[in-house]
Write a structure and sequence with these properties.
The complex is a heterodimer of chains A (about 850) and B (about 130).
Chain A lengths: L12 H25 L12 H12 L5 H17 L7 H25 L9 H31 L3 H36 L2 H23 L13 H38 L7 H51 L8 H16 L3 E8 L4 E9 L7 H4 L9 E6 L2 E6 L5 H11 L5 E7 L2 E9 L5 H44 L3 E5 L5 E4 L1 H8 L14 H11 L4 H12 L6 E7 L6 E9 L7 E7 L1 H56 L5 H29 L7 E4 H11 L1 H6 L3 E5 L6 E4 L1 H18 L9 E8 L4 E7 L28 H11 L3 E6 L5 E8 L7
Helix pairs in contact in A: 1-2, 1-3, 2-4, 2-6, 3-4, 4-5, 5-6, 5-9, 6-8, 6-9, 7-8, 8-9, 9-10, 9-13, 15-16, 17-18, 17-22, 19-21, 21-22
Chain B lengths: L5 E5 L3 H13 L3 E5 L2 H7 L6 E6 L7 H11 L5 E5 L4 H9 L4 E4 L4 H21 L1
Parallel strand pairs in B: 1-2, 1-3, 3-4, 4-5
The chains are: A alpha+beta (about 850), B alpha/beta (about 130).
Chain lengths: ~850, ~130
């Protein structure tokens, strides 16, 4: 029995359906003719009637919605076969018989669809039993009533006889043809393709032997090979039938029974011996059924057992694989994971007999799945959906997590809706995609392709695949974390390396744990006090040795590092000069605690030479400006200074001339002359002091801060301005602290400040009434370790809100003023760590205040 | 030479006062010094012929002020100004007010002596004719 149908073939559905319908028609026609050949004339029912079984097999294999198509397709074949016999049967009878044939197939198909989980399969005992009950017994039993009725009413044959003949004939046909046909159609192409040649030869040999033995056992005379012993087809055939059932399963069993049946019936009906009676045919039919039913059950049992064993073995192998997999990634360094992923994809693919396994990774930022790793079986034909997937690189695949299943879709554009619409449609049914989820985040997916299994088998491996997914997800998450950590470490190292600052990390004992490149560079330049210090050496010790060698500033470094290591200070910083003068560098050293339980510190040396140079340049500019300011102030004071000098000079000259006159007298009064000379000396000193004060203010010299008494300084300035004050008719009142008020300052700069304030005060009182022209100069110590100087005038006071503006450069109220005086005064005071401000007095005038850090005056 | 004539010196600078006192004593003059205009007004005996050597700039009342006060009081005492810094407006003011001389410090003592003796001579003759 052959068929041209190809249910699994490709092509449009309509063409497939048409092809199948044609095949059904052809099969029916051939089957009908075969049935007519195997008929025992003149009785109507055949010994075996294949068309009904062909219809049954068709309906079992086809979806119910196509049943009408295939049944109708069989109608022309039925008409052709029955009318072609030339029996002269009325058309109504022929159509009625077709209806009864269809009814049998429909009854069988409906019962099997209801009761069997796989109607076209015969590989479990349950399926075989359901098939026997539904298709082999019930369908012929019920349809035979109709058939017998039709035949009886048209041809007048005995109802009971027709029913009985048709029932048993159809039982035998259904039993032998349906399984054979179904198995041939569904499984034979694959078997022929995959089974080894040995098996195919064995099957062919078995078929030939069955035919020969069938002919031998059924076709010879009523006695068998051994005379005297009744022929016993069972004894001869049974080993070979069992051979087929055991070696070739349900397929072998059903095909061998079909072959045996055909041979038996043909031999009996067309044999050399006399035609058998109806009773003998019945016995033959019963005989064959009795053999075949247990045989098929046995084959099903064996197949069931084999499948169970195979499943168990596969399951065990899979479980073992899983147990090894779950441990495989535990201690694996992340850089070896990529290789391990590839390896395990291969093992899983081979263990599960898959075509392809993909590991997709989803990059968080792009929301895109990338094939990170893949494995494809040798020679596997990959479906087009996946064939377009490059093993690496970006794809246009979108992913969607829905109900714990990761769906993949491929859209031509980037729209999410396209992805959603395409996704589920493009999923192959034979694919399982497991999401890789770790920490609530989807990291990717595992795509197992071509899992051709029953739903139950698919369900049974899902837990295993979930475990695989968990292991992979865990490994991926760890790899991501470690990669991120490594990237972070690399970043930190790169940042440290790119710093120009030399950084060293010390442990609690001062031993260097790590340094950056900048450290080595600065160490070479001598900025770290010991060029040799590097990782592993004790920096604190190196600094102490430097102290003993007398290296400048090393002592400060030791103190700072010790203080921070002992947690006595939270930070330490100081500036120092490093290297020898031609290549002298300015550096800043900072020490901060290392924030970890074990303690330690971070020491950094920064080359601040450039900054220092700029600072010194700025300071020089400030000094230039201050000097210029002083010189211009002196210009203002010229008249006053001339007066100041003229006083002692005048005294000297007058005294000298008086002395001359005394000496010219007869008896000079030497006592008088001595007094005169003493006065001359004093006046000369007075003139010298004036010149010295001028020189101090006008000379350009480096700043020199030393402790000085503000009271003395103020008195000197007041002296310098005394003549000017007289000229301007201004009085100074010195209200000075009884004890020295000592600050650490540059005397010339502070004199400049006081001078400036006094000149301003005098200017402010230019228009005041004569009686009010008093400037009060006050010094006092404040409670907060500072000194306070006040210069109080009795002028008109400051303009409203001008208290701040007056210290800005170029702010002036004088017609010829430059507006630099107070600005310079402020920069000088700030440079001394002090403050300068102005207030209006309650009554009249303004007071300018200076606050400067006190140096301990009582000691000096 | 009449010995009754007195030279008054008003200057706030003690060194100037002492040196002038010696200079005039060396020439045989009677001399009286004052530290300020106020002291002069309080203590000086203006009845006898005299000459006033007066500093222009002084704390409190200036020399010019004192000159004006004396003029206003009718004391026509010859005044010779000595000044640490002589400027033209002040010199004009002094001369217009009747000063007989103005010397810028440091000045030649002989010239001052000469000027003082001239002034005393004038004062004596005025008082003699009066």
């Amino acid at each position: 029995m052959t068929t041209t149908s190809a249910p699994g073939g490709r092509g449009p559905a309509a063409v497939r359906i048409a092809g199948t319908a044609l095949a059904v028609a052809a099969g029916y026609y051939i089957g009908a003719n075969l049935g007519l050949i195997l008929r025992l004339p003149p009785a109507t029912p055949s010994v075996m009637w294949p068309p009904n079984a062909i219809l049954t097999a068709t309906l079992l294999l086809a979806p119910p919605r196509r049943w009408p198509i295939y049944l109708l397709a069989a109608l022309p074949a039925h008409l052709a076969a029955e009318l072609g016999l030339g029996l002269g049967w009325p058309i109504l009878l022929v159509l009625a018989l077709f209806a009864t044939n269809c009814s049998e197939a429909l009854i069988a198909a409906v019962i099997l669809r209801r009761l069997s989980d796989a109607p076209a399969r015969f590989d479990t005992l349950r399926r075989v039993v359901v098939f026997i009950v539904g298709a082999v017994v019930a369908a012929p039993f019920l349809s035979s009533f109709l058939d017998a009725g039709v035949v009886t009413s048209f041809l007048g044959e005995s109802y009971e006889g027709v029913w009985r003949a048709r029932f048993f004939s159809n039982v035998l046909t259904e039993l032998t043809v349906v399984p054979a046909l179904a198995i041939v159609i569904t499984a034979t192409p694959a078997w022929l393709h995959s089974a080894p040649l040995r098996r195919q030869v064995e099957a062919a040999l078995l078929g030939v032997l069955l035919v020969l033995l069938g002919v031998l056992s059924f076709g010879t005379s009523s006695y068998g090979v051994i005379p005297g012993i009744p022929r016993s087809p069972l004894a001869l055939l049974m080993p070979f039938l069992l051979w087929a059932a055991v070696r070739f399963g349900p397929g072998g069993a059903s095909l061998s029974t079909l072959v045996t049946t055909l041979v038996a019936i043909w031999t009996v009906t067309h044999g050399a011996t006399a035609p058998p009676t109806r009773e003998e045919i019945l016995v033959l039919q019963l005989f064959l059924c009795v053999i075949f039913i247990p045989l098929m059950c046995l084959a099903a049992l064996i197949e069931e057992r084999r499948a169970a064993e195979g499943a168990l073995g596969e399951r065990l192998r899979f479980e073992e694989l899983l147990s090894r997999l779950s441990g495989a990634f535990v201690h694996l360094p992340s850089h070896e994971m990529d290789c391990a992923f590839e390896e395990w994809l291969r093992r899983l693919g081979e263990a599960l007999g898959l075509d392809r396994v993909l590991l997709l990774r989803i990059s968080g930022s792009r929301q895109m799945a990338t094939v990170a790793h893949s494995w494809t079986a040798l020679g596997a034909s990959v479906p087009p959906v996946l064939a377009e997937v490059a093993p690496s690189g970006q794809m246009g695949w979108r992913w969607l997590l829905r109900d714990d299943v990761l769906l993949f879709g491929r859209g031509s554009d980037g729209s999410a809706s396209a992805g959603l619409a395409d996704g589920p449609l493009q999923m192959a049914r034979s694919e399982i995609v497991m999401p890789l989820v770790a920490g609530g985040r989807v990291l990717g997916g595992l795509v197992f392709h071509a899992i051709a299994r029953s739903p139950a088998a698919r369900a049974s491996i899902i837990p295993g695949l979930q475990l695989v997914a968990e292991v992979f997800a865990g490994a991926l998450a760890r790899k991501e974390t470690e990669d991120a950590l490594r990237a972070s470490e690399a970043m930190k190292t790169a940042i440290l390396g790119s710093l120009s600052t030399g950084v060293a990390v010390l442990d609690r004992d001062g031993v260097i744990i790590t340094v950056n490149e900048g450290w080595s560079r600065l160490a070479r330049d001598g900025a770290t006090w010991d060029p040799g210090v590097t990782v592993g050496s004790n920096y604190l010790g190196a600094c102490r040795r430097a102290v003993r060698r007398g290296v400048a500033h090393a002592g400060e470094a030791v103190a700072g590092i010790e203080a921070v290591l002992q947690r006595a200070r939270t930070a330490f910083a100081f500036d120092y000069a490093a290297g020898t003068p031609p290549a002298e560098r300015w550096c800043t050293m900072t020490v901060v605690p290392l924030d970890r339980p074990d303690g330690g510190a971070v020491v950094s040396h920064t080359d601040v030479t450039e900054r220092k140079r700029v600072e010194m340049e700025a300071q020089r500019s400030r000094q230039e400006l201050a000097h210029f300011s002083r010189v211009s102030t002196m210009g203002e004071l010229t008249a006053s200074l001339a007066h100041e000098l003229s006083q002692p000079l005048s005294g000297i000259l007058t005294n000298a001339q008086a002395a001359q006159r005394f000496l010219a007298q007869g008896s000079p009064d030497l006592h008088e002359v001595r007094n005169i000379l003493a006065d001359i000396v004093d006046d000369d000193k007075r003139a010298g002091d004036v010149i010295q004060r001028l020189r101090d203010l006008l000379c350009k010299r480096e700043l020199a801060r030393r402790p000085l008494d503000l009271n003395t300084l103020i008195r000197d300035v007041a002296k310098l301005l005394a003549s000017d004050a007289v000229i301007r008719n201004v009085g100074f009142v010195l209200d000075l602290h009884p004890e020295p008020v000592v600050v650490n300052a540059d005397s010339v700069q502070l004199q400049q400040v006081i001078l400036n304030l006094l000149l301003n005060a005098m200017d402010a009182m230019a228009d005041s009434a004569d009686g009010d022209r008093t400037i009060v100069l006050r010094t006092e110590r404040t409670e907060i370790d500072a000194v306070h100087v006040a210069v109080q005038d009795a002028g008109p006071g400051l303009a409203p809100n001008a208290e701040e503006q007056i210290f800005e450069p170029f702010y002036t109220t004088k017609p010829a003023g430059m507006g630099m005086g107070l600005s310079i005064a402020r920069s000088i005071v700030h440079a001394h760590g002090g403050l300068i401000w102005a207030t209006n007095n309650p009554a009249r005038g303004a007071t300018f205040h200076l606050a400067l850090p006190s140096s301990d005056g009582r000691r000096t | 030479m009449a010995a009754a004539a007195t030279v008054f010196v008003v200057d706030d600078d003690p060194s100037i006062r002492r040196s002038l006192e010696r200079l005039f004593r060396s020439a045989g003059h009677t001399i009286q010094t004052f530290v300020s205009a106020r002291q002069f007004l309080e203590r000086a005996d203006l009845s006898a012929p005299s000459c006033l050597v007066l500093d222009v700039r002084m704390p409190g009342q200036s020399g010019l002020d004192l000159q004006q006060v004396l003029e206003a009081a009718g004391h026509h005492i010859p005044v010779i100004f000595i000044t640490g810094h002589a400027d033209l407006p002040m010199a004009q003011q002094a001369m217009q007010a009747g000063a007989v001389g103005l010397f810028a410090k440091p000045f030649d003592g002989h010239e001052l002596l000469y000027a003082v003796e001239q002034a005393l001579g004038a004062a004596r003759s005025r008082s003699g004719t009066a």
